[in-house]
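Title: Prediction job returns without error message
Component: structure pipeline
Severity: low
Priority: P3
Assignee: unassigned

Description:
Job completed but the reporter wants confirmation the result is attached to the right record. Sequence as submitted:
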Amino acid sequence: MATERAFLDVESSVLGRRWTGPGAEAERMGAAITRALGAPEIIGRVLALRGVTPEGAAAHLDPTLKTLLPDPSTLRDMDRAAARLVDAVARRQRIAIFGDYDVDGGSSTALLVCWLRDLGREATVYIPDRVDEGYGPNVEAMTALAGEHDLIVCVDCGTLSHEPVAAAVVAGADVMIADHHLAGETLPECAAVVNPNRHDDESGMGHLCAAGVVFLLLVAANRLLRARGAAQPDLMAALDLVALATIADVAPLIGVNRAFVRQGLKVMAGRARPGLRALADIAKLTAPPSAFHLGYLLGPRVNAGGRIGKADLGARLLSTLSAEEASGIAHELDRLNAERRRIEAEVLEAATLHVEARGADGPLVWAAAPGWHPGVVGIVAARLKERFDRPAVVIGVADGVGKGSARSVEGVDLGAAVAALAREGALLKGGGHRMAAGLTVAADGIEAAMAALGAKLAKAVGARPAARALRIDGAVAPGAATPDLVEMLERAGPFGQAARAPRFAIPAVRVAFAKRAGESHLRLTLQDPAGGRLDAIAFRAFEGPLGPFLDGTGGAPVHLAGRLEIDDWGGRRKAKLTVEDAAPAG
């Protein structure tokens, strides 16, 4: 079978990608969707490229909890967990929440804190320090909490924490877990383990982040309260937290996750939560929030506390009722985020040199060194993954132990491979999910462990196409890229993991203006032969060949590919292109 012609004849772009277009079948299906919806042609094509049928198009454009929310009881242990939580509230028992230090953990913790507060109950919040304690429950902290509390709820962690959970139970507390990370062959013995990724769970909800699991737990708890004739907290108002966690944790935007994000963005636009309002203001977010804003403006700032600051800042920000406290925490998180970017840049430069010296042709790229801050290794791994198109691991070494984070590429289940290595003894600890994982390894065993991980991933990585394809939804001229067009496209969202944002080619344009912004970004103004103009930005362009190419076109025509968004900066509303790739025209 003949290979379909490359879109705009771009066989190898500046970033070494082959551009592929919609194809004849997508065009036909898009036309059918357009007729069924009475919508613009471009909407039909975008939906068709995402597997939407004409029959399912209307429902896809309107994802609601009423139609997509599963029965919480389909998750294993859910009814036990909800009953234990409601019982603790009714008996006025002392409750502690042990959460993770990232956005998902902070959001999950805040969900529980706010729900309990609405019922007149307070909870103790414990978030472990990333450097001193690492991820998840530890024996010392759990034992101390058990001495002061009747129930400990572990959120976004705990599924692999057999010994710490057992220590808390021995010390006299009940423990329940609401998590989503891959489980081992056995589970901790406790009151309940609600996790759609435990081996015996048949709910089909493995795409939920931890906040999604906690939300379903609270739905089940509200159902019990209603059966008892008691008041129930308003869970719809909490969807802003679920949306933030779903996007920031890169959960697939399928099923109920689409409704979580779509409805959560509507809640967030109301600016009722002091913490998110303060964070949006400090990030200079003037437009109604989108999934992009959650992933690139708000999420990184919430994460900054757990990465290089105080671990509980995110949970405190998201749960506070005080505008004054929210403003103070938001400013601190913004400062920490700037510091995080500085540290990240230093580690990324060093890690890139390590990878290039070792060679990046195998199934895995990795780097390890003493002194690398554990709070940035995950971000650096993500950058290496993007640059080398391989699963990536970055490890910081201290006191003879390496603590690292790993990020995967589409089609390669990294979490399962890391968990298998931990079971086999090549790692001291390890686990995660398909696209991300964490690991702990003896310093003298790093080389062997990475070789073993590469061997486990080799088949899946080798099955991916040799030439990276960049899928294009269509071509748009600068003059046609308007705010109205962007708003129409947003109707097909939300976009994120497993729901790629529409990507368009801007063909045969000239770079009329180019100016470097910050360390590695590039601001552009594009102009076509008809005089149409479009502003653009290429983030981190000078970390690779994209920046030098765009900054040195000399007026020659180029094709650009990227994502359109609305820019409200300065009160003037216009479309802007976020550049992802480029190629010489012709």
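Comment from assignee: result matches the submitted record. The chain has a mean pLDDT of 93.
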